[in-house]
Protein 1
Amino acid sequence: MSSNNRVLPKGVTAGDFDKAMQEIRAIVGAEYVLVDEEPLAPYNKIMVPVADAQHAPSAAVMPDGVEQVRKIMKVANTYRVPVYPISTGKNIGYGSAAPVERGQIVLDLRRMNRIIEVDAELCTALVEPGVTYQQLYDYLQEHNLPLWFSCPAPSAIAGPVGNMVDRGVGYTPYGEHFMFSCGMEVVLADGEVLRTGMGAMENSNTWQVFKWGYGPTLDGIFTQSNYGIVTKMGMWLMPAPPDFRPFCIQYPNETDITKIVDALRPLRIAMVIPNAVVIAHTLWEAPCTPVKRSDYVTGQGAISDDAVLKIQADHGIGAWNVYAGLYGTKETNDANWKIIEAVAAATGGKIITEEASRGSQALQYRFDLMKGKPNLGEFGLYNWRGGGGSIWFAPVSQAKGSETLKQMKMAKEILGKYGFDYVGEFIVGWRDMHHVIDLLYDRSDDTQTKNAYACYDELLHTFAKEGYGMYRASTAFAEKVAATYGPVKRDVEKRLKQALDPNNIIAPGRCGISL
Amino acid sequence: MRANRLACLVIGAGAMLGAAGAGAGQWRDGAQVYEKVCAHCHEANVGPVLKGRQLPQVYIERVVRHGNRAMPSFRPSEIDDAALAEVAQLIGASAPLTKE
């Protein structure tokens, strides 16, 4: 490719870029450096509603170890070339493997996929960024280790380090993934290697069991940020319970969300239900059943409430579908099951047990996720609208019924205005809920793509006015989402960036942080 | 681009497995790629069935690398060129699925 038309990092000359790439080739090997358009194509496949060109990389480099990463950082500093680290690169609907800003070099850590240690007694693991959940699952199975992890929905091809670093969530009792991480190894912009918590101490054997260490606990600043490159992460694993009882409770009316949340919150806080409960709307369940949208909708615009009711009736789907599980012994689960039955009866819900769910695709993938068995069942969502467009709108909500109904109505109204369907679910933390909405659109249709961008923008700002912030956001909206959190926080973030990465070479712009 | 690695250390339980184990982070062959990646959608009623359609190898390789609408792209760091060629050949030459 000639230097006239190729993508270059902002402010970097073609000559300096070539020199940097030559030095990086000497570090990782020429076959692990990509600079031409065709081989770079997989790094530019995005689903978010902006032009591919906005997130086009200038190169991709694939180191095989922390020493190579350190050396690459030295080169990046010398030539001021920005690098965008990815792990498994499957942050789909949040920007995938593409850099946050055009021209950044993707630092692809997928080849670093060693499962360094699993301690079966302490139930911990230490893994590299390229390890996928499927790989970890297979490892545990092959070694007959009765340990479970929590994973997000696209788990078979995604991995624990990247998901934790973006503060993703899953569906087991360990569903808040950052909370269940323990110890990181981080390559800083100057090539220094930091081990957080107890890992800072040479010869420590408590890195994966005690998070805090001594002095400030630093792990949090390496999540949703660009202060370092996480090259190892400790994580806690859950002993497989002797008895696991997943279930679904279906509710018939959209307004039932208030009583569902108010009835389940005490059970969640008291850990009668220990896992991250999901409350999924009809239109999340339908594509995963699967139901075809074209059987119920003709023409443009959002689906009608009548059509949603017809889907519920035709396919036995609730307006809301609650997924949760009991994790314990037969005796404790028998006791807690009576509580679940009583709550369902009192709130007008219909329980579907694992036995009764046989043959249901939508229920099976949920039940698998609640025990950390990787799958890709949720990709059924992408068949709903077709055309490969998706951006996650993900505000945080209090776990209070009135709040959830308010958020759902606000979102549905704005989505409808732009012709999009409310495809949403609430994932219950302990006292919070992640209200996750898949804004699905046809990315091959320019009008829908523009509308999707405008719709997200209106959702973001309308929710922010009501005091609702995002738990996570795509690269396309990093700056705008960061702005909703106010100037003081951003100023502190900038000062940290100045201190740790004065040349602004690690993913400038990620989460709105740049110099 | 196929990495050879035997990095797993288990303390307190289990015996070390060879690199052929899926947990070792190295593809054994194209069939394993199909089972661990492709089949999650293409034999799960999520993506279209691929087997038995005599899809050209070059087409499969292109869609894997570029993605296609909802189909994610896969990088050579995830599925190396040799493994991709094997899985594409396997799909192209496969018999139709018996369950559809």
Protein 2
Amino acid sequence: MITRHRLRWRIQHWLEARLPGLLTCAQFQEMVDAYVDDELGPVVRATVDFHMKTCPICQRYVIAYGKVRDFAADTLSAEEAEALDVVPEGLVTAILAARGVGGARGGGPNS
Amino acid sequence: MLEGGGGLEAGWETDRMGAPAKTSPAATPADDAAFIAALKAGDERAFERLVRDQGIRLLALARRMMRDEATAQDCLQDAFLSVHRSIAGFEPHGSLGGWLHRITVNACLMRLRTAKRLAETPIDDLLPDFNGNGLRLGEPRTEIRDPETELEVNRVRRFVREKIDELPDGYRIVLLLRDIEGYSTREAAEMMGIAEGALKVRLHRARAALKTLVEPLWDEMGSS
């Protein structure tokens, strides 16, 4: 019985023989960042889009990849929004004091 | 150094209505010419105002980069000492806020570099695998869907935050600079002291590794 991997391999070789310039998954992977960051030119983008149409695994990969990138940005920006609204007084004092001694290091609140 | 800004146009000390300036970030006249002039002249009150107003977001930045409060505070102190030393040479081509942001990033990077925390360490186990024909190995996992409820949003944020912190610093910082702080590849590469190509490779590995690390949450959410 033919395995799923073997079938994909056969299909890809069949397509590569007829459509030169077709990407392998490994070549596609190298373009994932430029794809999700929208930095690809129209021709290369079309090649990447075509690969995704013929490879559902890569299609799911790139969708998940973009979402994780967005979740990371959302997570950290939400954290900033919840950050405290004043600088700790001890830190302000330490910064102002250190400046007064000519910017010498080692006098920080945690040094 | 001038004490209390005597003799200066102290217009930054009052808002447009003439009321005393508030000490909230929104009220910071960060790009106000008079305020910058006061800083350049060594006005103590202007500098303190800068620390109190801009320090809030800069401390949040240092916390993101350093992962612990004590080191983040030390970095903020380093950053403001750099500001104090170099404010006289500040040319307002860009914004004062952007300049401060960059100085704080550099202060954090300096500490990370000194502690040898920026080295590129192997994370191959977290990266996708391919066979000899370039075919992706492994089946797709549970589809990563957007969180639907407030509870899920918070759970995702908490989990993603934990996983970002699990990345080695050499990757985590690249991810922060490019995807969170909004620096270009060229700017981030300059800050990290590596070539643009090397930065792109690190960013790709960081994103791919983070994807691998956070996927189990969707397996759990899909089954719960």
